[in-house]
Design a protein that fits this description.
single chain, alpha+beta, three-stranded antiparallel β-sheet, 6 helices, about 15% strand, globular
Length: about 100
């Protein structure tokens, strides 16, 4: 992925909000029945509800975040859970520091 594509992905307010919420999921989401908020990630439906968007719109946002390596995904039952990839975000911070 080219740097310009990465910054385009990060330039979307909804995707930035998602990354911010996933940094401290317990502060932004109620406990889940399936999956631990920190260990397993946040259920995609909860993220969609918080943003006030449809599941298909969230799916597109998450496809881009996962594709850029910014977020990992995990299936539990019929749900997809998302968790920040802090190592990848640290790489991007180092990249920005070189500019």
């Amino acid at each position: 992925m080219q740097d310009a594509d990465l910054f385009r992905i990060l330039g979307n307010p909804s995707r930035l909000a998602i990354l911010g919420w996933l940094k401290d999921p317990r502060a932004h989401f109620l406990p889940q029945v399936d999956g631990d908020l920190v260990e397993d990630g946040v259920c995609g439906q909860r993220i969609a509800d918080k943003l006030g968007i449809s599941a298909s719109t969230l799916s597109e946002h998450m496809r881009q975040l996962v594709g850029a390596g910014l977020v990992g995904q995990k299936r539990i039952k019929q749900w997809t859970f998302y968790k920040r990839n802090d190592a990848r975000l640290a790489e991007i911070a180092a990249l920005v520091a070189t500019l």
